[in-house]
Design brief:
With 207 residues, the protein is of the alpha/beta class. It contains five helices and eight strands; from the N terminus they run E-H-E-E-E-E-H-E-H-E-H-E-H. The longest helix is centred in the C-terminal third of the chain and has 14 residues. Bound molecules: pyrazine-2-carboxylic acid and zinc ion. Keywords: Hydrolase, Metal-binding, Pyridine nucleotide biosynthesis.
Length: 207
């Protein structure tokens, strides 16, 4: 059984969004091509879903984006512009992305005090979303991951997927990163952890 997991294809990460990822809109077409040509037993879409004054917002701490703070649990929290605030235009999934009625939506980052890059666990690994249980319930073996951003939420979701025991694929042409350096390091980390690199055409041709 296979799952397609689409990470955070939300307006704030796309063209003119508050935390715009360069060329993010280019991933919509290949993801839609996959949706139109391949079938999965499950499709899940994650949403970064923050309350106002979230710990990851620079504005919450009167700091600048890409400064960092040390959290109560002694982790380094990188700070971002305000983004993906619950029920705002910026937190909506991009309107051009195909979303079907049967798709599952996973909200993450709801806790004001703890960020959550991964769609499985928060950054402190203390709480989890419903994703792991849903994948187990559907007897999922293969998880195909893509979306935004390669060097943050896609990386964290890929690593958690592997550590949960799923055979994990990263769909490279359906993902974009924030920084070149961060993305290069993330790709290396994925390779080191046994994540398999594919692109949308591999999926469509082998469907
Ligand atoms: C993300 C930074 C902050 C992401 C979310 O979706 O990759 N990045 N929040
Ligand atoms: Zn966020």
């Amino acid at each position: 059984m296979s799952c397609l997991l689409i990470i955070d294809v939300q307006n704030d990460f796309m063209k003119d969004g508050s935390l715009e990822v360069e060329n993010a809109n280019d991933i919509i077409k290949p993801i839609n091509d996959i949706r139109n040509n391949c079938s999965f037993d499950l499709v899940a879409l994650s949403k970064d879903w923050h309350p106002e004054n979230h710990i990851s917002f620079a504005s919450t701490h009167n700091k600048k984006p890409y400064d960092s703070i040390i959290t109560k649990s002694n982790n380094t929290q990188l700070l971002f512009p305000d983004h993906c605030i619950q029920n705002t235009k910026g937190s909506e999934i991009n309107k051009d992305l195909i979303v079907k009625d049967k798709d599952i939506i996973i909200n993450k980052g709801l806790d004001k005090e703890v960020d959550s890059f991964s769609s499985f666990y928060d950054n402190d690994k203390k709480s989890k979303t419903e994703l792991h249980d849903i994948l187990k319930k559907h007897s999922i073996v293969n998880v195909y991951i893509c979306g935004l951003a390669t060097d943050f939420c896609v990386l964290a979701s890929c690593l958690d997927s592997v550590s949960c025991g799923f055979k994990t694929y990263f769909i490279e042409d359906c993902s974009k990163g924030v920084s070149k350096n961060g993305t290069d390091q993330s790709l290396q980390k994925m390779k080191d952890n046994g994540i398999i690199f594919i692109n949308s055409l591999d999926l469509i041709q082998n469907k």
